[in-house]
Amino acid sequence: MRETTLEYAKKLDENDALNSYRGEFYMQPGTIYMDGNSLGLLSKRAEQSLLTTLDSWKKYGIDGWTQGEHPWFYFSEALSKMCAPLVGASEEEVIITGSTTTNLHQLIASFYHPKGKRTKILADELNFPSDLYAIRSQLALYGYEATDHMKLVESRDGHTLDEADIIQAMTDDVALIVLPGVLYRSGQILNMKVLTEAAHEKGILICFDLCHSIGSVQHELDEWGVDFAFWCNYKHLNGGPGSTGGIYVNHQHLGQNPGLAGWFGSDKEKQFDLAAQMTPAPDAGAYQIGTPNILSAAPLFGSLEMFEEAGIDAIRDKSLKLTDYMMYLIEEELCDYSFTIANPREEERRGGHVFLVHEEAARICKALKEHHVIPDFRSPNGIRLAPVALYNTFEDVWNTVQILKEIMKEGTYKRFENKRDVIA
Ligand SMILES: Cc1ncc(COP(=O)(O)O)c(C=O)c1O
Ligand SMILES: Nc1ccccc1C(=O)C[C@H](N)C(=O)O
After folding, report:
1. Going from the N-terminus, what domains does the chain have, and what CATH number goes with each?
2. Which SUPFAM superfamilies match (predicted)?
3. What's this model's pTM, rounded to 2 decimal places?
4. pLDDT below 70 — which residues of the chain?
């Protein structure tokens, strides 16, 4: 039987197989960090791999490209090998490069080939807006108006998407589909396998934004036959602010010329021939453009090592327990305060965070911060709380709900304006 006591939370922590990892992260004393789905915390291993990289620069100068622990010329490829298991791909299909948005631009530029009647890109109205901006601007390069070339699947409840609605929108005028793996607000996991099968039955290519799913839930992109994917590494993968992102290209599509070419997409053996004609790499490396941002990728060596060691299955298992426990406490303790849990409940449909809806959400988040609990607010009325498997405890979850209860009971949130800050 679950209990609402602190002792029960402590007991859950004692039985947590991952509890040794918390000590590897920099946590501010007295602060409960519930925002690892926006920016993951720094670990000592990530810090060390960044320092090691700086050391190579100190010691080797230009020769750091070929010398040191992780020679920079092969940096992206070495990281891709570590990251590939997290998306269920082979190392040739993954490249650590760019940012989420630039990677989507690259994928559309490379694989969206409108032909005849098939000219539309299908997306959804709940996706992170940057994706929609990128799609719109890529369509504009063809002279297409988004109003008639971008199809957006609508949500029935404002928070989640129904796979049946998405499948129904897969009509024969759609060339490419771009969807999130996990929705950034409600944390809903889309059934990527079922959507991929449906897309392929209709002859449509499908691409997923894994920003909120990578490092949080398992992926089997190869097994599901997904065509392309892209993501950032600064959320659940703790790569640091602006950390280099990732691209997945299914092996069936490798060998096609990059839409946005640059010399770092070259075959490594040929790159320094400096020929006027590019020879693209045979693998996903071809979708790189310019010189990799070495210092923004360096923390990933330390961070990904922790994922290799802990294993995504154990991480997902604990994440589910944390969010389950959080929802239980919210229902038991906050039932008088008009919160709605707007994330899906089922394990197959629930990502790594809890999404609470409340009319006063903006100022409740400000009050939480004042009490040293870090959530994020998503306009107009959402609070995201992400208890992260590698560094949050069940006691953190218990304390978060108790603090939230106190804020609601005392009404201390009323001292703030119900309006978001510049960065919410
Ligand atoms: C789902 C999703 N897509 C795209 C982005 C944009 O990523 P970036 O700023 O790294 O391009 C974000 C977050 O910023 C996101 O959560
Ligand atoms: N890149 C950022 C820079 C500043 C502040 C937030 C972000 C985020 O990543 C937000 C995230 N995409 C979200 O799911 O809302």
Report:
1. 6-30+311-410 (3.90.1150.10), 48-308 (3.40.640.10)
2. PLP-dependent transferases
3. 0.98
4. none
